[in-house]
Amino acid sequence: MELQPLDRQVFLAAGTLDEGNRYASTVLVTVDEPLLGTICSGVLLDSRVVLTAGHCVCPRRKGSEGFRIDASACVKTASVTTVTYEPAKARHMSNARTHVYDGAVRPHPELEILFDAQARVVSGRADLAVITLDSPVEGLRPDIALADSEVQLNEALVMAGYGHDPRFGGIFGARYFRQNTVTRVPTPHGGRLLFEQRGTYLYNGFPGGPCFREGESGRWLVGITSVGTDTELSLTSTYFHRDWIHAALRK
């Protein structure tokens, strides 16, 4: 499928198409659950472990004063799709090489996101989940290092993921990256940060996608994109939850 000129204008808000496979460790995450119909992103930590957002695998449920997401009602399995492009043909999505893997889902036990009656985020913590794949990925070597320090206010981070918005849809397998600036550092509880949206609200932060600190000496994973709204976008700090992530890798 080739992106047409009108498509390019619409999808420009998503960022830059990853034609060079710079973020090939960023994967598609899908589940067989009607209440979780949105396509999510995730990131390969090693050949059999994917880190994504808890809200991508745990549906929102009605609560006493609004809605909530927690670890008590999550799907058991998810599918992970790796996508690599032939450099000269990256704009033709039909030429992307894809492989699908299934795996077991394990959300962070402290996952909790509360919404008011208008579905606005009231609070959130530990919006993370790992997917342990049944078999290791082929032809792709994960190159992700976990950050050894917390993000700072006004720090510029690179977000990567698959363009999708519940109102406008997306093109399956089109991976983008863009830069966003941190506007609020984590509180002592839950490791939730806020970042500014560049441009329009389209492609709301690539749900479940990785957030990187990049420099001349390398690239480090600092967060996973969490639930956002049209007034604020958020991510979950991987540094804040580093002990749980390291434990998941050891298992």
TrEMBL record:
InterPro entries given in the database record? CLIP_Serine_Protease, Peptidase_S1_PA, Peptidase_S1_PA_chymotrypsin, Trypsin_dom, TRYPSIN_HIS
| Domain of life the protein comes from | Bacteria
One Pfam short name: Trypsin_2
SUPFAM superfamilies, per the entry: Trypsin-like serine proteases (SSF50494)
Which residues does the UniProt record annotate as the domain Peptidase S1? 12-250
Q: Which PANTHER family match?
A: GH08193P-RELATED, PTHR24260
Q: What is this protein called?
A: Trypsin-like peptidase domain-containing protein
Q: Which organism is it from?
A: Hyalangium rubrum
Q: What is the lineage of its organism?
A: Bacteria, Pseudomonadati, Myxococcota, Myxococcia, Myxococcales
